[in-house]
Amino acid sequence: MFAQLLAQQTGYAIEALYHHIVQPNQVPVNKTKKEFTGDFTIITFPFAKISKKSPELTAREIGEWLKNALPEIESFNVIKGYLNIILKDDFWMEFLDKNYRNHSFGLNPQKQGQAPVLIEFSSPNTNKPLHLGHIRNNLLGHSVAEILEATGLPVVRVNLVNDRGIHVCKSMLAWKKWSNGETPESSGLKGDHLVGNYYVLFEKKYKEEVNQLKANGLDEETALRTAPLMLEAQEMLRKWEAGDAETHSLWEMMNSWVYEGFNETYKRLGISFDKIYYESETYSLGKKIVEEGFKAGVFYQKEDGSVWVDLTSDNLDHKLLLRSDGTSVYITQDLGCAELRYQEFSPQKMIYVVGNEQNYHFEVLKLILQRLGRTYADKIFHLSYGMVDLPEGKMKSREGTVVDADDLIEEIILTAREITLELGKATDLDEYEAHELFSMIGLAALKYFILKVDPRKNILFNPTESIDFDGNTGPFIQYTHARIRSVLRKANPWSFTPQKNMTFYEEEKEILKILYDFPSVIKQSAKELDPSQIANFAYELARSYNQFYHNLSILHEPDEQRMLTRLAISQFTAQVIRISMHLLGIDVPERM
């Protein structure tokens, strides 16, 4: 890209002018800010000490050298120590001609022989359906995987299903006690919804028992620990780990209901995985690793038989690895899972997409693996993201107040239908096409609203705000794409031939400058594992195109060559919108 060429040539200029060697990575080159005239800006303040001249004079001398060395430069201007480079319009015309039909612009082919990047996302529990928090997790994981692949990296998408443990036993026990044999078929409910209802029921009954015990004089901690339902759930977990046939049969049946429900939701969101791991298959390997560490003196055992690791030397605390009854905890299965994945894929990096409430957990996981001498410990990266709330407040699954993913998807598609019809944007579509469009718009609204925010930040999700055809939303970008496709359909068969010495209007050049940035935006987004950079790029491009569309005529432009140039700009813009939205897991319509 030209920014790299400028950095390299600036290094040559400094060597020629001031007899000092500067490496290209030491030359700051940025896009020129909109309030100034220019395409690229070189910050020359660091070189004033080398030239022993003022920053302004240094910038002018470097600018003159670059203008003589690079035929692409039309002119330059200096503001203090900022050297603003203006490129010739022929440069932008050549860029347009080279790429306006390039359907993979910005994408790099995968290089053979590279170790893959493994990315874990979703990680649901089989005691409840997917909720709004899972939606952010899935959308973020899927988009990061797409962006990494766009840079040429092989990616393995994995899901770790938390299909065992005390939380799963709570749902199982409640169903066993109070279901009267209810099934998804008999109830008409998705399997994950049905099982989730019994998890909520367990918590309700458990809370009643705890309150009764407290009324009888027990303190809260003792009541929570000794309530009969909790003791029964713990006994069920022990039976499961001991391989009890009846417990395993119930577990397999209820989990199968949940998986069918999950798959429906994944399909609707456009999510898929290359490999699914189950905690029930990884926790035993984790227990072996803990036993290995205990024998090696890395871990220690308390009097009650529980196994711990002392992390106080790393400014953390003591971490439980195995309970006194021999049952495992989350960190146990994560140790086993990391080992299994490394053996299977030898990845160059293992990315865990998990909420920021688990920051401590992953810090502990890396430290334990380092102490065990696992070479892959430093390959682990926790992609920590913020929480998603609704205007009504925080979600709590055990109280049954979680925003169910399926319900949210239905609500937002219904909202998309109402707003789209109100605005008259589906009047010429048949019933099937209209239904598909409403679904496409609703899912775009949901996905874009979540992905346009830096993953580290919390989100207050407002379904109505997400469907705004004039704001920074998925539907606005979709509508821009449909508008461009409409223009291209109305155009007579056309063929673009670049014209020398054609002067671009500011609106035309602004779009070309944004398009030029796309490959570097993908690269930076992949480096920072941040899809919001792609999302906000797509919005900036769509917004600039709409300004171009309103200010300049396309099909009615009397100058045929300029009309063809604007059609080429339109086609190029539509392609890049489609690519960028695909990287976010969003489809764009041909008509709207």
Name the CATH homologous superfamily of the largest domain: HUPs
* Residues in helices, as a percent range: 55-70%
Top CATH class of the largest domain: Alpha Beta
Write out the strand line-up for the largest beta sheet, numbering strands in chain order.
7-6-5-11-12
Briefly note the CATH topology name of the largest domain.
Rossmann fold
**Model regions low in confidence, pLDDT < 50 over at least 5 residues:** 393-400
CA-based shape:
globular
Q: State Rg.
A: 29 Å
How many strand units?
14
Largest sheet: 5 strands, parallel
What count of helical segments does DSSP give? Answer: 21
Number of domains: 3
Strand content: 5-15%
Mean pLDDT: 93
Proper CATH architecture of the largest domain:
3-Layer(aba) Sandwich
Q: Can you describe what's shown?
A:
With 592 residues, the chain is an alpha/beta fold. It has helices spanning 2-18, 45-51, 55-69, 89-99, 132-150, 166-178, 184-187, 191-215, 220-226, 228-241, 245-269, 279-295, 330-345, 359-371, 405-422, 431-451, 463-466, 474-490, 506-528, 532-551, 560-583, and strands spanning 29-31, 40-43, 73-79, 82-87, 117-120, 155-161, 275-278, 300-301, 307-310, 318-322, 349-355, 380-385, 388-389, 459-460. A 5-stranded parallel beta sheet has the order 7-6-5-11-12, sandwiched between helices. The chain has a 4-stranded antiparallel beta sheet with strand order 1-2-4-3. The two termini are 35 Å apart.
